[in-house]
Specification:
The protein has 273 residues and is of the alpha/beta class. It contains nine helices and 14 strands.
Length: 273
């Protein structure tokens, strides 16, 4: 089985310090969390940025500042800007995260509209998805096809049939939001993607650890971090993203998977630095 790639989603756009005081807002805090995850074994930092008061932003200058600061302490890590942004942002606002220098080697591409609970709807029309895929292809950015249910895989494959994606495809299954986070559902999602594709999975909240263990056993890759889950175990808040990455590393060791370095992750994912 190939080595395990660990992605750390270090801050997200919605979680707050009121929920966990270790959630990073400032550049210094973002760097601290990126370094903790990298030192623990993460080869990819999935990056949202905030203003110092915690307000999410997609402003290019803020992303540039964060990326430059992370690079100083984690020079070889893969930095994956989010093009998801936050609920209510426009397409152009969301794509601003990819305008940094040098151009990102990897970025997320959300493949459908998602209900986040209550009245919160994260809108991704077909045209938005195709436009994002076109721009990423033109810029040489590898998209991580972020899917929250089986229908979003089908939309991604529609973009592929239009020639907007480059193989091998890479998917991220986000379970526990719009689709339940069961092993049955994970197996179904894995069986629905093209042969030769790579995949990562994450379980939201209390679903984080059984999805991580199943993913490691099935040969996929794992995403953890404050964006998706704030707890190391029931009732115990994680003190850092690094603590959660350490837990994945321990699970991998028990299940016989070695951990990929950033450059090994690039090779596995067919990413050109």
């Amino acid at each position: 089985m190939e080595k395990l790639i660990i992605t750390a989603a270090i801050c997200g756009a919605e979680v707050t310090k009121e929920q966990n005081p270790a959630v990073p807002y400032t550049i210094e805090e973002i760097v601290r969390e990126a370094k903790s995850a990298y030192d623990a074994g993460a080869s990819i930092i999935h990056l949202h940025v905030r203003w110092d008061d915690g307000t999410p932003t997609q402003e290019t200058k803020r992303f540039q500042e964060a990326v430059d600061a992370i690079r100083k302490v984690c020079p070889d890590v893969i930095i994956q800007p989010s093009t998801g942004g936050a609920v209510g942002m426009t397409d152009l606002e969301r794509l601003a995260s990819t305008d940094i220098v040098p151009t990102p080697e990897f970025a997320t591409l959300d493949c459908g509209t998602c209900n986040f609970g209550g009245d919160e709807i994260f809108v991704n029309t077909d045209n938005t998805i195709f436009n994002f895929a076109t721009i990423m292809k033109e810029r040489g950015i590898k998209p991580e096809l972020e899917v929250f249910d089986k229908g979003m895989i089908d939309i991604a494959l529609k973009a592929d049939r239009k020639g907007l994606l480059v193989h091998p495809l890479h998917f991220d299954f986000v379970l526990g939001v719009q689709m339940s986070a069961t092993i049955r559902d994970l197996v179904f999602m894995v069986g629905s993607i093209p042969a030769g594709s790579t995949w990562t999975a994450t379980g939201l909240g209390r679903n984080a650890w059984h999805i991580a263990a199943a993913t490691i056993s099935m040969g996929g890759h794992v995403r953890v971090g404050f964006e998706d889950n704030l707890y190391l175990e029931k009732g115990i808040l994680a003190k850092s993203n690094g603590e959660m990455v350490e837990k994945v590393v321990k699970l991998a060791k028990l299940l016989g998977r070695e951990i990929a370095t950033p450059n090994e992750a690039r090779e596995i994912l067919s990413i050109k630095k």
